[in-house]
Amino acid sequence: MTQATARAYPNIALVKYWGKANEDLILPAAGSMSMTLDDFATTTTVTLDETDSFSLNGAEQGEAGASRVIAFLDLVRNFARTAGLDTADQNARVVSVNEGPTAAGMASSASGFAALAVAASSAYGLELSIRDLSRLARRGSGSASRSLVDRFAVWHAGDDQSSYAEEIPAPDMAMIAVPVATGQKAVSSRKGMVATATTSPFYPAWVTSTEEILKEMIGACKDSDFTLVGEIAETHAMRMHAVIAASRPSIRYLSPTSLEVFDRIAQLRADGIETYGTADAGPNVFAITRPEHAEVVSERLRDLTKDGEAKVLRPGRGAHLVGD
Ligand code: 2P0
């Protein structure tokens, strides 16, 4: 096959990834855990071609915009070479469409590299397991390793072989996206992680406490203890924003409106509607609740959103070839 199309969804971490042990191989300093979403998909087609090129949301990307995608294709070609495939010397055209906002904390790099890993490996003729696809996607963007997995994923810290994501059982839940801004963020995750690791005095404690809280989270998921899952998720998100804020110069991703959303979530809890919050490297917040409360939580958070829409999201499918 010389052309393949794949579809992948973003994931939202309940135990966050923030910091690398190895920059080249994108090995995380600690493990993490996430829910794969069922909306905001990326659909990517890879076609073997005369030259490498990348189109995103209908716009042809120049050298800078295409560099990470082309570096990823080089990686896939290396694997094809090792596997003795004669596709290894061919270039490729990558056409990608995001249904969610790009680079605004909606995890588009996760769905983007997960879809690219599946489509490119197939177009180049590689037959990879989900585990190896997760390892490959990791090389594009760390969090992409988790978007290979259905529903709920743990991404293991480790070496190149052992750092992949796999599915874990978890209590059924819904997430409500609360977009408060969709502009490009001020500091990319990649740069923000380096700044945190090199200048935040709390970083060592962040890494060790993340490993501990991940074990607790996996136990809570196994016990289907929604309350503990929610409490851990909100605490861990706040710890991430705290360790980031302690960088020098300070970095802040949350906006005043984000904090209002967290206050509203606390009010929902006080009203007996069990809800927790999380936010990534941007101002948008995700509320976590039991499925039966999803609509009322969406209703109660809607007025704080940018466009008056707080979408209900459910656990979704891992990255897959279209047609599978
Ligand atoms: C996460 N984030 O666990 C955390 C929480 C953002 C905040 O994973 O450098 O785009 O490509 O590995 O995967 C964003 O980081 O960074 C991220 P790279 P990535 O979802």
From TrEMBL:
Residues 8-164 form the Diphosphomevalonate decarboxylase-like N-terminal domain. Keywords: ATP-binding, Lipid biosynthesis, Lipid metabolism, Lyase, Nucleotide-binding. InterPro entries: GHMP_kinase_C_sf (IPR036554), Mev_decarb (IPR005935), Mev_diP_decarb (IPR029765), MVD-like_N (IPR053859), Mvd1_C (IPR041431), Ribosomal_Su5_D2-typ_SF (IPR020568), Ribsml_uS5_D2-typ_fold_subgr (IPR014721). It is an enzyme of class 4 (lyase). Residues 180-305 form the Mvd1 C-terminal domain. It holds the Pfam family MVD-like_N. One of its GO terms (cellular component) is cytosol. Belongs to the diphosphomevalonate decarboxylase family. This is diphosphomevalonate decarboxylase. It comes from Flaviflexus ciconiae.
